[in-house]
Structures are given as C-alpha cells and as structure tokens.
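Technical annex, item 7. During the second reporting period the consortium partners agreed on a shared format for inverse folding records so that results from different sites could be compared directly. Each record opens with the tokenized structure and is followed by the designed sequence. A conforming record, contributed by the partner at site C, is shown below for reference.
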C-alpha cells in the first residue's frame, strides 16, 4: 500500500507454503484434541514465492507490484512438509490465491 518496491532475494524471493488462518486453527485445535506429540509442520498445500504472492495481490487490486533485488542474498526455502499435518491433524486445502481473495474481499479492498 505504500507504493515502495518489495525487496527480494534473487530470483523471486523466499519460497514458502503459506497456510490460511482457518487451516492453522483447525490443525492446532486438532493437535490439542488428539494430544499429538512430536514436530508437525503447519503449512499450506502449495509453494509460492514472495514475488508470486505480491503479483497475485497486486492483480486482485488491479495494481502493479514493483520489486528491487538484494543481490547480496539468495532466495530462502521455507517449505513445511505437510505429511504429518495431513495424517494427524488436518489436510491443508486453501490455496494462496483463494485465501488472499477471501481476505481482500472481507476487508472491502477489492475494486
């Protein structure tokens, strides 16, 4: 919203699999109910880069995202393995493009 370029590590910024609030909440409640133990990654069903996320949001708002590169870094990978989450707690279902559309609509920010 500030109009400032988004700083990315080449080529497209960090790659991650974001989870929506509902999915994270369902998994957490289920973990409490089942008393699951051990490490469980809570993450979404798809991987996206920061560039893809920004471009998706900008497109929904009928805007153009701008980027600048931090050439002193390389893009990180913060990808959770949702295997245990799916087996024990809750299968992630909501893709980033759908979830962000819901958030923007709820906030009244869609043109």
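Designed sequence (site C submission):
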């Amino acid at each position: 919203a500030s109009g400032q370029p988004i700083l990315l590590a080449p080529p497209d910024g960090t790659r991650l699999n974001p989870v929506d609030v509902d999915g994270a909440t369902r998994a957490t409640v289920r973990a409490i109910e089942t008393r699951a133990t051990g490490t469980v990654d809570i993450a979404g069903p798809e991987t996206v880069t920061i560039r893809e996320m920004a471009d998706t949001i900008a497109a929904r708002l009928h805007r153009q995202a701008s980027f600048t590169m931090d050439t002193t870094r390389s893009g990180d990978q913060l990808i959770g393995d949702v295997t245990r989450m799916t087996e024990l707690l809750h299968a992630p279902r909501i893709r980033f493009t759908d979830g962000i559309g819901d958030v923007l609509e709820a906030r009244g920010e869609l043109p």
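The CA atoms of residues 40 and 84 lie 6 Å apart. The radius of gyration is 16 Å. All partners now use this format for quarterly exchanges.
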